[in-house]
């Protein structure tokens, strides 16, 4: 057999799987975004051009969804990076039971998003019997209905709690690779902990921070389960993000054309963010 042909034959199953799994759905989404296709009106299907895209971006909920998406992404990333670095630094030094503490800190990342949302909704944020309500009443304060009064903040807390272990794990791994001789030398030169943090720890964690931000940003663009399970995008559009808006167009309004246009908008947004962050990570790695 031709030596040049064999590698291509071996790659064929992987390429075929990639084609069926990614390319075909993408092409179908582009097709549906260009036609009028409402499941409640199947007899009115026809070419729509860019009409679906215009309808999606002029939806009264679109502006709020984009703002909520940006706030959700930015808040979760800031919380997970800041507290992830802090926790990683705290458990980096040896202490009794460090192995058990590490396992407990990482475990929330393996909880399914729906289970995570239900736990926070019923166990923590319920205004009658939730843990936070009991704490409020213990101090004589009126319990807060978090999901009604502060819906987006509640979703941010839920998502941050689940993604914080991921950031902590990445930062813990990075700290294990630090040059301990350099740390010892800085101590001998009289550097205190804050100076070590500024000039040694933070620069060393720069690459890890870039990686965490890139991965979280890509995945957090598709946050849905927490919103659907707890607030359903409400009250009003207070906790609706772009992903949930696409869901409403597809499964509540039964408009597959507009939903497909929204999905393409989300794909373009995710790719722009990914390209920007990959370049940022590349520059960081070159330093």
Structure commentary:
- With 287 residues, the chain is mainly alpha-helical.
- The protein has a domain at 62-239: MetI-like (MetI-like fold), CATH 1.10.3720.
- The chain has helices at 5-33, 51-57, 62-90, 98-106, 113-124, 131-138, 146-149, 151-176, 180-188, 193-204, 206-220, 225-230, 242-252, 256-286, and strands at residues 35-36, 46-47.
- The protein has a two-stranded antiparallel sheet with strand order 1-2.
- Helix 1 packs across helix 14 (256-286), helix 3 packs parallel to helix 8 (151-176) and helix 3 (62-90) packs antiparallel against helix 11 (206-220).
- The longest helix is centred in the last third of the chain and has 31 residues, at 256-286.
- It is a multi-pass membrane protein.
How is the topology of this model organized?
Blueprint: H1 5-33, E1 35-36, E2 46-47, H2 51-57, H3 62-90, H4 98-106, H5 113-124, H6 131-138, H7 146-149, H8 151-176, H9 180-188, H10 193-204, H11 206-220, H12 225-230, H13 242-252, H14 256-286
Antiparallel strand pairs: 1-2
Helix pairs in contact: 1-14, 2-14, 3-8, 3-11, 3-13, 5-8, 8-11, 11-14, 13-14
Organism: Acidovorax kalamii
InterPro entries: MetI-like, MetI-like_sf
Transmembrane segments: 9-34, 70-91, 103-120, 152-175, 205-225, 258-278
